[in-house]
Task: structure prediction
Amino acid sequence: MTTENDTGLREGKAVPVRRVRHVLLEAVCVVLIALVGGMLVFQTALLPYGDQLEARFRVVIAAFRAPAMFALGHGMRDYDVASVPALNDFYRGKVASVNPSSVPSDIKTFPVNDSYGLMHYSLMYAIGWAWRLLGVSTWSVHVLCAVLYAALVAVMYGLFRLAMGRVMSLVIVLFLSTSPAYLFSCPSLRDFGKAPFMLGFLLIAGILLTRRQTARSLVAWSLVMGVVTGVGYGFRQDLLTCLPAAMTVILVFARVEGKRIFRWRVLAAVCTLFVFVLTGWMPISGTLKDNGSASAQALVQGSSESAEARMDFGRASYVALYEYPDLYDFTVVNAYARRQGDQEPMPGQFTPAHGRMGKRWFREELREYPADLFSRGIASALTVPKIASISLRELERDPVPNRASIERFLPFHKALAEHFALWGVWYIVAGLALFAFYDLRAATGAGLLLIYFASLPGLLFEFRHFFHLAFVPYWVVAAMAAWAGRLCWRVVRRKRPFLRGNTSGWAMPGRLAGAILLPLALVSGLALVLGGLWQIQTVTLSRLLSQYGRATMEPVPVREEVGDHDTLLRPESPLPGLAQTDKLAAFESCGDYLVLDMDYDGQPIRMRVVYEGASQWAFTHRIEPHIAYPGHPCRIHYFVPVYQTTWPEGTGVSWNRFAGVEVEKGKRNAIHGVYRVSNANEFVLWPFMTVPEERETFVDHKSGPHDRAFSALTSRLGACVFGVPGACSASGGANGHGSGSN
Result:
């Protein structure tokens, strides 16, 4: 006979047994998905490289000498490159492996003290362990890439399990493990290495948003979040952006039960920061050592037209810089520092002076163009559903060794990628509304996190900076499908009502209101902030245009060198601002600010700034004015900065020489004269600036798909309401607004 006590004991044992089985089953799924993902990527994306490393990482790894010493038992220490020819050949790519016997046992080492190495301390340790276990070889690096890929798909499985069942998560993550976005990115270890940590952070944030926590579990998850962020920061500095998100989730959106909740939130936030500093101290010290030079470089480069054009953003009457080779980017910052009277030595990138002045340059641009950065972030966020489609273009453009093997998966991904590129934004809006219907608080936190992390790549929009978000539209659609499946199952089985009363306590009208209002509130908030920043920028640029109108211009005599298709306008004598180039010390720059007085009708025109010398590749680039109304001829002054820089080369220095401005032969007569700005130092920044005589044709802010679509919509509505065509408004929507249209 079974007693009540026996029954209770049996039931008490049953619950832990079920939990253990559940945990074991999940562990098996995680291990399975990781093994499959690791083997898949090794065979598909890594093995085709053979004894070579991915081109970008081949350049980067040359700066990581300490992992070789760690692998050979000397600790994470640096050494004199010339002292070990075998290692030197390996880092130069001449050999694929190193025999340990070729490295002297008494080699002289010293602590790692360069900022670049310190910033990647976790990555160096990962490489060091791979080489210690498997030997110093390129094959070991491929294995490390595969291990990180296995970690990525394992974490991705956890993300999908937040919203759907085990089988569905396995199927979709297996599908995503064959995604060209991830396979293409994996061989570039430095860029790919951050991905497991970024998704790991998102997984922990998702747990805190959707699962109720006790005070102790909140602290525990916060500690894990700090470890993930701190260790990941030593792979790539992008993980620093997780800290503001972590503080927001912990202090505002995490669901915590118990007493004195706010104190526990503060304690958890402090724990995250403390563990981040503890685990990430070496990369933090590297960032402090050079004043965040790597971040400063990215901020300057992200303002270039080539970076902005990738997200269909720009089309203003000013351009900070067109292209961003490292040498040109350095020159812009160095010349800016000297114009500001700052003479601190700046021996290349990753130096304290470069970091300090690069960030100062960016703050000045933000002061003059406050709306552009915010708008650029929105344009970046809108590309998240297009990442899978972008990866296909990246794969097609780049002749990497693994392209053929990755392309075998294209039939499974291409149609879906193109579909998400068209409709992905609306899927995300629908998913957010559905989430808000069930849990408004968690949906608000999730929406803000998505906007935040999706907009950050706008700082420097390159595929390697945002590929890890390729899973987002798949996750949203799968989550909605899982919800629909559960709903149908409940209806068929008549098990439970549609909504349980303890979900959040809202009545149906309140839930519907939350579902509708949250997406509207987020969109309206972004629009209001952007509109306010546009107003501020209009005033700022009005003052700036007045300053350009007062510029003192001196004629520059030029001679014409006529080619087959273009005419080079070469100054007859060195420009005054460039005359002292031969006397500059290494790493120093000088510049001059030219003005082209020309007729321009807004139609494309082929023009280039041409340089000669060893560094001409970094400085020769196209230029093009821009006005609001294509086909509307007007007279403009087009301001063009030119630079010359000395750069170490062997035992001496080399420099680029400004040769002149090249224009297509048929448009030579459009240029009436070339001038230089004699009071150029009064201009804080030297953008490529189009200053038209007709002020209304000046485009005073950059635009993306969001505001151009809104302008087109309002012009159509105006035409429908008032019965007049919105030609001018439509033109402004396509090309930006004039200075008086804001």
In short: Residues 1-12, 501-505, 726-742 have pLDDT under 50 and may be disordered.
